[in-house]
Amino acid sequence: MIKPPLVLMFSVDVSGKMRRSLVNCLAHSFCVKTRQVDLAVFAGHDVIRGTQLLEELCFMLGPSAMESDGPKYLLITRRHLVDSCENRLYGLSELGGNVGVVSVAGLDFREACAECWHEVGHLWGLDHCPDPICAMAFSSGKAGLSQKAGRLCRACMNELKFFMEPEGAVGVSRCLLGDNCRFDGKNCKDQDVLKYIEGKSVVGICPEEMGGLSTPRERSEIVSEHPVRVETTTGKDVTEAFNQGALAALDTLISAGIRRCILKEGSPSCGSRLIHSGKFDGRRIPGRGLTTRLLDERGIAVVSEEAVRRRGYLGIEQTKNKRPEDRG
Q: Checking CA distances to 278, which of 77, 189, 322, 323 falls within 20 to 30 Å?
């Protein structure tokens, strides 16, 4: 996959090891270019309102700050940023926009890297992550920021990879397409998914049926992780069918040259962030389905219909209804 362009803009007070560290932590996933800037709003100010700095940056960049297919710009400064109530900000950006800012004042290299990933993720349309150590986790202060890793979790990285590449064929859970292949013989037809895949080549998969299970069938859930075990409501072990379905789905997708999939959230095969609890009580817990795990291992990015819906969608290039993200 071609790395998308990201311009890191450093104020003159960010140099040396901090600057090199931030470039290196993002260069693996982006084609990073750097610029040094000295905006008028910096003159004589150690504390700057975040929205004012964003406006100044957009003015300096001109039309490129609004181009839907243009690069993303992230300004990094050691000035303190505040919101309209004078609360400290470590970063500010527009969800799905082109321009963000990060203050590294008082941050170490890992914290600064996590905050840069957080704002870059927002620029690419990622919302907050429930995993507290993911760089996309919500934090309202340095304490929350300090517990984050300086990177995205696998689920967020998969979403980033998926939405960075809006063109090409897509694998989709057949139930989301409207096929009656759910365990209960029904479907989960999803209008947001259908809207997203308009004009794209699509390959539908149902790992459960591909693994030899009938429709309708008993509800199944992952009841154990060590070792992985999938059971039905009556206690029947169907792990092997789920494993075979995952392998069959992988072969189908690889044969079609597909590197991106939209799969049904919560499913013991297809969940990308959530699966059911294994107690058949209706609760969903953090986890990934067996097919999603295998596809991830083979470099196929999986997102859920809920990720598509969150973005309100027709691709990463769409910037309508952007909202400010004054988040730490």
A: 189
Q: Which two tokens stand for residue 114?
A: 């996590």
Contact 184, 217 (CB under 8 A): no
Tokens 């365990």 — which residue?
183
Q: Is the distance from CB of 327 to CB of 91 less than 8 angstroms?
A: yes
**Model confidence over 263-315: pLDDT tens digits?**
999 999 999 999 999 999 999 999 999 999 999 999 999 999 998 987 753 33
The model carries a pTM of 0.81
Name the CATH topology of 5-152. Answer: Collagenase (Catalytic Domain) (3.40.390)
End-to-end CA distance of the chain: 30
Contact indicator for 277, 307 with CB cutoff of 8 Å: no
How far, CA to CA in Å, does 206 sit from each of 168, 190, 209, 214, 230? 20, 15, 6, 11, 16
**Backbone phi, psi, residue 321, to 5°:** 55, 35
Contacts of 16 (CB under 8 A, 6+ apart): none
